[in-house]
Write a structure and sequence with these properties.
The protein is of the alpha/beta class and 256 residues long. The protein has eight helices and seven strands.
């Protein structure tokens, strides 16, 4: 039998109930990890938890908003109680708002920063100390191609993801010699609710973003399972010498 790629690992995933987050939750479980996943979508999270438990996996869902410090503290405490410790933190939670830069409000700036950057900061800050005590740990962050190739009407999304993106790389540099790996994966357009909303909003403002347009930019739309496979690679020992990277999952979107 082929060895499971996350056998005996314990993982905490934010934004794990839908799209590429759900695909990652499923794949991490399938590859042998015990998983706790958190999401604001209680219905989707509970259904996924039931599905995975029925399949024999050790998994727990927690409903919560990880942009809030008290929620993060409770989530991490519950995860440690369930798992024993955390080997892998996958910071996947995030949102997008698409509109002209001058139409954004200060409240929307705060909302984007809270959900895309602050949440990853809070989760990483809560989990990292115990990883350092154990002398090993892996952090994975879902970034975006928008940190390299700015997209029309996504200024705040790109700014908030860029903050999270460099947080990931800075953690890698600071804690490399203490057994910590931290990497960012950077998807382009993905066939998820998040991705479909993004495309719909771009088209509303007259930006060419049909599936045919996406095909010109990146060959075809990316499937959530393809993002999950990259997250798995970065979380697993297969990437043991990969640290501080920005891995673009975009089929040449940022290369041309």
């Amino acid at each position: 039998m082929t060895a499971l790629r996350l056998e005996n690992k314990r993982a905490l995933i934010s934004g794990g109930a839908n799209g590429a987050g759900a695909a990652s939750t499923r794949l991490f479980c399938k590859e042998g990890a015990a998983v706790v996943f958190v999401d604001k979508d209680g219905v989707a999270g509970s259904l996924l938890e039931q599905e995975l438990i029925a399949d024999g996996h050790r998994v727990k869902f927690i409903e919560g908003d990880v942009s809030k410090p008290d929620v993060v503290d409770a989530v991490v405490a519950s995860a440690v109680n369930f798992l024993g410790h955390i080997d892998i933190l996958f910071n996947h939670a995030g949102i997008i708002i698409v509109k002209p830069f001058l139409d954004f409000s200060l409240a929307e700036w705060d909302e984007m920063m809270d959900n895309n950057a602050k949440s990853a900061f809070l989760m990483s800050r809560a989990v990292l100390p115990s990883m350092l005590e154990r002398g090993k740990g892996v952090l994975v962050f879902t970034s975006t191609t928008g940190v390299r190739a700015a997209t029309h009407l996504e200024s705040l999304y790109s700014a908030s993801k860029s903050a999270m993106h460099m947080l990931s790389r800075s953690i890698a540099v600071e804690y490399r010699d203490k057994g910590i790996r931290s990497n960012a994966l950077c998807p382009s357009f993905v066939r998820t609710r998040h991705g479909e909303h993004e495309i719909k909003q771009l088209r509303k403002f007259g930006i060419l973003a049909s599936e045919q347009d996406v095909a010109i930019m990146q060959g075809r739309i990316c499937e959530p399972e393809e993002i999950a496979e990259v997250a798995l690679f970065l979380a697993s020992d297969a990437s043991s010498f990969v640290n501080g990277v920005e891995l673009f999952v975009d089929n040449t979107f940022t290369a041309v």
